Amino acid sequence: MSFEDVPGLPSVEITLSPADRFREYLATQGMRLTQERATIVEEVFASHEHFDADQLVLRLSQRTDGRRVSRSTVYRALTWLENAGLLRKVARNNDRDVYELDYGYPAHDHLICKRCGDMIEFYNPELAAIIEEVGRTHGFRVEGHRLEVKGLCSACSRPNRKSHRKLDMI
Amino acid sequence: MSFEDVPGLPSVEITLSPADRFREYLATQGMRLTQERATIVEEVFASHEHFDADQLVLRLSQRTDGRRVSRSTVYRALTWLENAGLLRKVARNNDRDVYELDYGYPAHDHLICKRCGDMIEFYNPELAAIIEEVGRTHGFRVEGHRLEVKGLCSACSRPNRKSHRKLDMI
DNA sequence: ATGAGTGCAAAAAGTTTGCACCGCT
DNA sequence: AGCGGTGCAAACTTTTTGCACTCAT
């Protein structure tokens, strides 16, 4: 995954830390920010990379402080984090749901390479405008979107590439 | 699912029937259009509705002529149909891949209602142009895209709706 | 004879859930 | 006492695969 700053990319106001924001959301649902959930949020927001449930479980299992979290708890937390608007599912990869941060991170879409799986983020303001426009003409209240552009990244589309592979994750 | 004709929507040339097109593709792969595959293509192209593997299996099981096809064969055929460019995966619904016809059917995207699940198709030529442009600036060879716009359809966004529900498919 | 194709049942793989125990973020 | 939360293992879903047999698009 590669992230590229784009001039004019909208910035996002963050007043609460992800953990606090999550705590607030949980409170509205009559739930608590437990030690486990806090650990998960910390781990999730420690990186801006895309990830799936399995990778997150792996990262959590490698923590040196003793804050372990079970797989079930991770799955349950991912659902809540998504509902809370802190994460969003961006795609499917290797038959797994792929998540990315959706809090304190500007909206963007992805170019996904069919060959190496690389996900290139991009932001295009016209896109949002068009989507709004389309919604309007259909009386549809747009709340969000997900755009995956599939094709070949520059490395993989070069005929004599030195194999830009990585799709074969054991 | 609702389809609406949009002025200026690109038409698509169909010279071969879906079955013939599939036969041609299969030939290039050293495979044959068997009775089972023909039955599947016929069933798939009998409707323009979105569908998932399970629904297709169900439809096939209800045929009155004795042309039954096993579930495995359906899954295998869906993959080939996708590779052949006759079908494409458009979304996930109820944890299942959702397919739609991609042959003899103009390119389009979807507005998906979060409440009732309705999928409204639309086509916007500017969108394709922007996507091409974005790809170009990233040296990315665009082969296709998938855009899901989530929100509330007009019926569901009316405060005093008479419930436009249908998301509860057992 | 050849080799792709099929159906069945079993296996994968990701995700969800029942349940007993825990602990007060 | 109350109740949400956790971990574990079992269950569940969708999809894939091994295999023996079939069939000839």
Essential attributes:
homodimer; alpha+beta; 170 residues; DNA-binding; 6 strands; 6 helices; Arc Repressor Mutant, subunit A; three-stranded mixed beta sheet
Element layout with pairings:
The structure is a homodimer of 170-residue chains.
Chain A: H1 18-28, H2 35-44, E1 51-52, H3 53-61, H4 71-83, E2 87-93, E3 96-101, E4 109-113, E5 119-122, H5 125-137, E6 141-152, H6 154-157
Parallel strand pairs in A: 4-6
Antiparallel strand pairs in A: 1-3, 2-3, 4-5
Helix pairs in contact in A: 2-4, 3-4
Chain B binds a DNA duplex (25 and 25 nucleotides) through residues 23, 26-27, 30-38, 52-54, 69-73, 75-76, 95-97.
Report on the architecture of this protein.
The structure is a homodimer. The first copy, chain A, is globular. The two termini of chain A are about 20 Å apart. In chain A, a hairpin with a 2-residue loop joins strand 2 and strand 3. In chain A, helix 2 crosses helix 4 and helix 3 packs across helix 4. The first copy, chain A, has a single domain, classed as Orthogonal Bundle (Arc Repressor Mutant, subunit A), CATH 1.10.10. Chain A is about 35% helix and about 20% strand. The longest helix of chain A is centred in the middle third of the chain and has 13 residues. Chain A has a three-stranded antiparallel beta sheet. The first copy, chain A, has a three-stranded mixed beta sheet with strand order 5-4-6. With about 170 residues, chain A is of the alpha+beta class. At the A-B interface, helix 5 and strand 6 of A face helix 5 and strand 6 of B. Strand 6 of chain A pairs antiparallel with strand 6 of chain B. Chain B binds a DNA duplex (25 and 25 nucleotides) through helix 1, helix 2 and helix 4.
